[in-house]
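<instruction>
Derive structure tokens from the sequence
<entry> Chain with its tokenised backbone below:
===
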Amino acid sequence: MIIRDSAFEKIADSVKPDSKKRVVLQHIQIHEGVTYHIYTNSTGQIVLDPQVTIPASELWVFEDKEILASIDRGMADSVNGRIVDRGSFAKYVKNAP
């Protein structure tokens, strides 16, 4: 599903492409390192879908459905306050401050 949120907000009126068919997105916060997949439909609407890259060494997390589900559960637990403070683990790290 490309459209993940159907609540669109108009941010500019009557923006025209320049002579090289570029459209300047003046009022959009664009984060560093983001690239875009570009989609269009039969009516000419354009959707920019922001993407980020990950290091190849971290790809395994996204390829392992069980690991990814475990991370998702942990994040949901944290968001919902279902956490246990285990204190600092600094004493187990070599050269810890």
The first helix runs from residue 59 to 63. Helices lie at 59-63, 65-79. The longest strand covers residues 35-40.
